[in-house]
Amino acid sequence: MLRKGDSAVVIQLGDSLQRKSGQALPPFIHKKDKLILTLRVENVYNNEQDMIKDRVAALESFHQKQISNIEEYLKKNNIEATKTAKGTFVKITSPGDGPTVDSGKQVSVIYTGKLYPSGKTFESNEEAGKEPVKVIIGRHMVIPGWEDGLAQLKKGATATFYIPAFLAYDQQPGPGRTPNENLIFDVKVVDVTDAPKEEPVPSRSMTPARPNVKKEQTPAKK
């Protein structure tokens, strides 16, 4: 019903959505709720190839803005950090002298997660009695920025990761309860060993856990 440049507001009741989808509503939506979707048709494509090409370009531009934001933050605060090929910024404060973190290795990590740019701590396992989180590199057990950053370290190393949102929780709400959040992590590599034959039970911590995000999603405008 729409053309390029048109805008629309779609209003749907929760119980109607449930009937059409045939699935239970998520806990934050009730049957009597009105769901309001505001949209605007930005473009109309002649074929799928043109659409994919435009989507990829939009994603790359969106990701670059997140990287540039971190670069400005580091410059403003006189922080020297190295950007990986994927886009994680790593500031190594102590290089360590043990085995290098590599694909297939199990890494034990003590960490503190901080909101960006405030630096407010939202989660940590540094407190007494808490165990290091165990991560097997290459199994996608954690957010991409964690694997990317840990791969730059050795046993005994301490570092800070400045992770752009697309390597963290992307468009899903992060620890700060908003989408597209850059994050900061202080980490210490306690141990680097061969991975056990059986995969260990994932950490109960929600913070490093990898979200179920489809990378082909179109970036949401904030």
Plain-language structure description:
The protein is an alpha+beta fold and 222 residues long. Among the domains are: 7-40, no CATH class; 81-194, Chitinase A, domain 3, CATH 3.10.50. Helices cover 20% and strands 27% of the residues. It is built from three helices and nine strands; from the N terminus they run βαβαβββββαββ. It has helices at residues 14-21, 48-76, 144-150; strands at residues 7-13, 34-40, 82-83, 89-94, 105-115, 121-124, 133-136, 158-163, 183-194. Strands 3, 4, 5, 6, 7, 8 and 9 form a seven-stranded antiparallel β-sheet that branches. The chain has a two-stranded antiparallel ribbon with strand order 1-2. The longest helix is centred in the first third of the chain and has 29 residues, at 48-76. The model is unreliable at 212-222 (pLDDT under 50).
Give the topology, please.
Elements: E1 7-13, H1 14-21, E2 34-40, H2 48-76, E3 82-83, E4 89-94, E5 105-115, E6 121-124, E7 133-136, H3 144-150, E8 158-163, E9 183-194
Antiparallel strand pairs: 1-2, 3-4, 4-8, 5-6, 5-7, 5-9, 8-9
